[in-house]
Write a structure and sequence with these properties.
Blueprint: E1 11-14, E2 17-24, E3 28-34, E4 37-42, E5 46-47, H1 53-58, E6 62-66, E7 69-74, E8 77-85, E9 88-94, E10 100-103, H2 106-115
Antiparallel strand pairs: 1-2, 1-5, 2-3, 3-4, 6-7, 7-8, 8-9, 9-10
Length: 124
């Protein structure tokens, strides 16, 4: 990952465990280890968390299975795709007429939420 791909409060994996970004520096991030413990780690030690149907469901997205296309819906957003290629999901978010973006990881979904003015936090 790169520092310019992250924002405060993003979910990332550190030692195979989801952690929140609390501070971003050039090559390091301060992450939350527990409610009252923090650790400064090198950015190369952080990895993205893939979006999964289970995570979408846990966050209130409802799956719609239609003949003309399947999608997940919540907050006025339509998320579709999810085809796995090379172990990575490929999702697309429609957030209005002619507004679409590609996302693969949870931190990208968090960024889309912020762009759309959605203040709810992603639950893992």
């Amino acid at each position: 990952m790169k520092a310019n791909e992250l924002m405060l409060e993003d979910w990332v994996l550190y030692e195979n465990t989801p952690k929140r970004i609390l501070e971003i520096r050039e090559e390091e991030c301060l992450i939350s280890i527990s409610p009252n413990a923090y650790r400064l780690v090198h950015i190369d030690e952080l990895f993205p968390i893939a979006i999964t149907p289970e995570i979408l469901n846990k966050n209130g997205f409802v799956f719609h299975d239609f003949v003309f296309g399947d999608y997940w819906e919540c907050y006025g957003l339509h998320i579709y795709g999810g085809n796995y290629a090379d172990g990575h999901s490929n999702w697309n978010i429609n957030c209005g007429t002619n507004v679409s973006m590609n996302v693969t990881y949870i931190h990208q979904l968090q960024h889309a939420f912020k762009l759309c003015g959605i203040e709810d936090e992603i639950q893992l």
